[in-house]
Write a structure and sequence with these properties.
heterodimer, A: mainly alpha, globular, B: alpha+beta, three-stranded antiparallel sheet, 5 strands, elongated
Chain lengths: 320, 187
């Protein structure tokens, strides 16, 4: 593919991701409302509030941009981009049609995870640069949580990689032609569940949202942010969740594989959306865990389970 | 840590509960579009000073009982002597009557003490106001509400002083006439 073509492709994927992210906020609000017997956004864009994301965006854009007096100016201004860009970069590695991704690379799965972890730097920059104790506490919690949950997340992602015998996402999808990896008895389901729970922590959603913990930390590392900079954090959170759902759909649910005349990208989008809704379902069904409980879940449950399923997958691979 | 079975069962239960909510109709009433029925003894509406439906005379005799009982001390009445009423209910009137709705706690005590059933609460949703003055009810606004009640009696709260008295007496199994000396009982 020529340089110009790949730039165009990247722009198209980026635009699609951002547009979808805007409406994911609407989806989450409607879905959460229904789980709680409410209606959710309704009057802005009657019926069912379909103009709500646009209204929110306009509101964020016109709001005053406040920088705390003793903030670390450079880190404070840079942090939203440091968070958003890695979150969006993940989309580049997802293959959306047969053998086609914006960035196809022999180690694209590892690269995806590496980029996703980079967001951590931005979050800590935000927490540190705000010169606010709540923001800093939240950022510290985020680092502790993400560094821990990164391990079961990566181990769970290595299960499909082991089954496919490759770290290249296109190869992993192609290896699922016969059987989606989620259907591999025992190993697949365990890895998917671990992946989903770790993804919840990565996206800092309840029950693992000790980072946000409104009752203790006001909001999160983004307390001091206003206007569109806050909006960028918000978008990054959803983009990150969507990218992780897309990754889950790719490595466990067969990615772009599907039947009928429907193009592969649509299949991928549907599967990602399904995983996203599953995450929301978990997120709105449980209360926030304490810090120690979240850590216990990680080290005492997710870590052994993911390790066991990885070893089992390896043995499976060696025997088969 | 709790037993594994308990944790799994609780997890499952939580997710089933939310899933069941998903397929249920939401409880929300879309208020401005759908008006809920206002209960008969609604106490969050505005106030009215009533008129006698037959003689069209003001019922308020300016006795200031509501002013004295009001816990927020927001009612102020001026008693004016005048001509006897055609329905024989006294010969005094409220010259000035103000009720500052801003501080009203909707306790309904003024309604309960009124000997002439003159002040009543309105059985409708209170209209919002953008100014303090908008919540200040003077004599003219209270009587304007009273004139609305003449046309739409259903807007009047079911609780008036004499009806409240009847309900209380009925619960106690008493006849009002037996308690009060003849001639003083209200018709």
């Amino acid at each position: 593919m020529g340089g110009l073509g790949s730039v165009g492709l990247a722009a198209a994927v980026l635009a699609a991701a951002m547009g979808v992210v805007a409406y994911l906020t609407w989806l989450e609000r409607k879905f959460a409302a229904r789980l709680q017997n409410r209606v959710g956004p309704y009057w802005v864009g009657y019926p069912h509030g379909w103009l709500q994301p646009i209204a929110d965006l306009l509101k964020l854009v016109v709001k005053e941009d406040i920088v705390p007096r003793r903030a670390d100016r450079l880190l404070f201004e840079l942090a939203p981009l440091l968070v958003l860009v890695p979150a969006l970069a993940g989309f580049a590695f997802l293959p959306f049609a047969e053998g086609r991704a914006v960035a196809d690379h022999p180690y694209s799965l590892a690269l995806f995870v590496a980029f996703a972890s980079l967001a951590l730097l931005g979050i800590f920059a935000a927490g540190w640069g705000s010169n606010n104790k709540y923001a800093l506490l939240s950022a510290l919690r985020m680092v502790a949580l993400l560094v821990s949950y990164e391990i079961p997340l990566v181990l769970a992602l290595l299960v499909p990689a082991t089954l496919a015998g490759s770290l290249r996402l296109v190869d992993i999808v192609e290896a699922q032609r016969g059987l989606w990896f989620v259907a591999v008895p025992g190993v697949g389901q365990a890895a998917l569940v671990v992946f989903l729970l770790a993804a919840l922590a990565e996206a800092n959603k309840a029950p693992l949202d000790i980072v946000e913990a409104e009752s203790e930390l006001v909001a999160a590392y983004n307390v001091e942010y206003t206007g569109i900079k806050f909006g960028l954090f918000y978008a990054a959170e959803y983009a990150h969740t969507l990218a992780l759902s897309g990754l889950g759909a790719t490595v466990f649910l067969g990615g772009y594989l599907g039947s009928g005349p429907v193009p592969g990208s649509v299949w991928l989008a549907l599967k990602s959306l399904g995983l996203f809704v599953a995450l929301l379902w978990i997120r709105w069904s449980f209360l926030r865990m304490r810090v120690d409980q979240a850590m216990a879940l990680n080290w005492k449950v997710l870590f052994p389970v993911s390790l066991a399923s990885l070893v089992t997958a390896g043995l499976w691979q060696v025997r088969g | 840590m709790a037993p594994l079975g308990l944790v799994l069962a609780g997890t499952l239960q939580a997710m089933v509960t939310t899933l069941r909510n998903l397929v249920r109709r939401p409880n929300t009433v879309q208020y401005p579009a759908v008006a809920r029925p206002v209960p008969g003894r609604w106490r969050a509406g505005s106030f009215a000073l009533t008129y006698d439906p037959e003689t069209r005379e003001e019922n308020c005799i300016g006795c200031r009982l509501c002013e004295y009982i009001c816990p927020s001390q927001i009612i102020s009445v001026e008693l004016v002597k005048g001509e006897p009423r055609k329905n024989g209910e006294g010969a005094s009137y409220a010259g000035r009557f103000t009720l500052d709705f801003q501080a009203c706690i909707q306790c309904e005590l003024c309604v309960q003490v009124c000997p002439a059933d003159a002040i009543v609460m309105l059985r409708e949703l209170q209209e919002p106001s953008f100014t303090r003055e908008g919540l200040f009810l003077d004599r003219d606004r209270l009587f304007a509400n009273g004139r609305r009640l003449l046309e739409r009696p259903e807007l009047e709260s079911e609780a008036t002083a004499s009806r409240l008295q009847q309900w209380t007496d009925a619960r106690r199994g008493l006849e009002r006439a037996e308690l009060a000396p003849a001639g003083e009982a209200k018709p």
